[in-house]
Amino acid sequence: MQNFSRLCRVFLPLFLLFPVFLWADPPVVEPTANTLTVESSANTAAAQAPVTLPETVVTAGRLDMPASQVPNSITVITAKDIERKQSATVNQALQNVPGMEVVQSGGPGQITYTYTRGSNDQDTLVLMDGIPLNDPIATARNYDYLDELSLGGVKQIEVVRGPQSVLYGSNAMAGVVNIVTQDGGGPTGGSVLFEGGSYGTVRESASASGGGCLGDYALSASYFDTAGFPAADKAFGNTYNNPDTDFSSLLKLGAQPVSNLREEVLVNYNQSRISLDDGAGSEAQPQPVMDDANYWGDQKQVLVGSKTRLSLGNWNQ
């Protein structure tokens, strides 16, 4: 055990630069169902009493606070909500959120527009752990790929309605959607999912997490593929199916060298390829056949960010 402690002291500084994973004694498993165990030091045998922790959010004020104390209009979509609805993408999870309309222009993988309280699409800011996902070089700086963003590794989604520009800038004039990812830690474990359906649809996902004295990690990856169908009516010359292929991956590393300091690194990679309809029409305004089997849309996004949490008494940074 002394040799193990010496190794922790030697390799702990290196972990801040490189993700090193070593087997460690499994930590004590915390109780589930968001409860906190309080131990009594009475003269009798130690007693334990569960205390229910309040649901907390970070988006409304950039600090952890109970949802009951948030003055803004907010909706929290938890992991249990996602599992109950069998949602696979952020687009599906946001359906039926009060005050928000999510409109998709076609089948799987097609562009998705988000309208909060009747505002324009570019007035809703999309974040992942507080890091903006909106396109920084687009004219409107909006984010239209919610149906290509997997929910693998997502702990909850916080939706804040109303002006948030003071905290997040001009793209948050109508609201904010913050995708909060899972933290690592605990005994090493993982999960695997495979699904199949009509239109040649296949969905696969895998995740793993764990941690030790050097830090913790959470890793997830998902793959989706479908043969699709024409997004526009075949009667107007759209005869080709619109296949869609999406790949999403998420890696989160954490280290806590001292009790009041924690460092986190987040890496998110998304890639998609979808066939698009080149033309459409209507009974009133028919158009000539314009569909093209070689008309594709490709999207890639890489997000790398870090977060440092420092607590000094009542002061949090």
List the topology elements.
Blueprint: H1 2-15, E1 35-39, E2 48-52, E3 56-57, E4 65-66, E5 73-78, H2 79-85, H3 90-93, E6 100-104, E7 112-116, E8 124-128, E9 131-132, E10 154-161, H4 165-168, E11 175-181, E12 189-197, E13 201-212, E14 215-226, E15 244-258, E16 261-275, E17 296-312, E18 315-316
Parallel strand pairs: 8-11
Antiparallel strand pairs: 1-2, 3-4, 5-10, 6-7, 8-9, 10-11, 12-13, 13-14, 14-15, 15-16, 16-17, 17-18
Number of helices: 4
Strand portion, in percent? 35-45%
In sequence order, what are the helices and strands, one letter per element? HEEEEEHHEEEEEHEEEEEEEE
- Low-pLDDT regions: 10-47
Strand numbers in spatial order across the main sheet: 12-13-14-15-16-17-18
Shape: globular
Radius of gyration: 23 Å
- Which class best fits the helix and strand makeup? mainly beta
On the 0 to 100 scale, the average pLDDT is 79
> Which sheet architecture does the biggest sheet show?
7 strands, antiparallel
Counted beta strands: 18
Helix percentage? under 10%
**End-to-end distance, in Å?**
35 Å
